[in-house]
Every structure is written in structure tokens, then in C-alpha cells.
Design brief:
Structural class: alpha/beta
Protein name: CinA family protein
Largest sheet: 5 strands, mixed
Helix content: 40-55%
Number of strands: 5
Number of helices: 6
Order of helices and strands: HEHEHHHEEEH
InterPro entries: CinA-like_C, CinA_C
Radius of gyration: 15 Å
Pfam families: CinA
Amino acid sequence: MMSLFPDDILSAAETIIRDFTAAGLMVSTAESCTGGLIAGALTEISGSSAVVDRSFVTYTNSAKIELLGVQTETLLRFGAVSEETARQMVHGALFRSRAEIAIAVTGIAGPGGGSAEKPVGLVHLAAKSRGGTLIHRKMLYGDIGRSEVRLATIRTALEMVRSLLAA
């Protein structure tokens, strides 16, 4: 089967779809720098409609505020690419969906947009379960190219979702 995604991402997505289906659970995504690619990887798998509840692509600050309830003060104080914003994004994705587990990502894929304090390749990911478990990861992938940053982020996000299911 021809796919947009590499085999390792498809394998991880397939495992999530299989395990979430068996557990009767749903997942939601809140994506900025990946532009919906995490949901895309999950929905590449047959049967994903039983697992993927919805995806929020919130590329702009106003979308993060309107669709996920990210606080304006958080964006002003910490910026869109921050742990605080990722945490509020994942909370909003859970609150606005029927999913038991959600994943949120916000970062700088490049090639531009980086700064000394927030370089290209910086991504904050947050995964949360309705049971309250929250995982945050700050990834510094480096200036490895836009597509590679996005693919690396998908890999990390899928691993975080799988780890919450196992928790």
C-alpha cells in the first residue's frame, strides 16, 4: 500500500488503532506545527473511525484561543511554542471531544521562525488522559528540515499516546 507516511509511523499508528479499538477508547489531536499530520497518520489506518474522535488544527493564536480555549494571557506571557500553551491545548482537546486521550503539539518546524530562545526544531508536546495523567515533552530536534521536524514530532506524539494507553 502506498502511503504518505514512513513504515515506522504507520506501524505505530496501526498499533494505536488496534489497541484503542480493543479498549473501546478514542483519541483527539490538537496540532499546530504538524498541521493535522498526526490525525492523518492515524486515519491512514483502516478502522480508525472507531478511534479518532476529532482533530483540531490550530495554526494561529486566534485558532488556539477560539477552538481550544488557550488563554490569551498564556500566549502573551509564554508564546505559542511553550509548555504552558501545549498543556492548555491538550486540555482543550479533551474538553471539546469525546476522547479519553488527547495529544497536542506546538513548535517551530522551520526553516524560519526560530530565535535564540526558541530555535527551529523546538517542539512542545502534551498528552493527557481523562484520568488526569499528563505527559509533557520538550523536544529539540534541531534545524533538520521542515518535513523531518514534522515527522519526528509525529513519531514522538504517537509514542506518547501509546504510553498513556499503557499507563
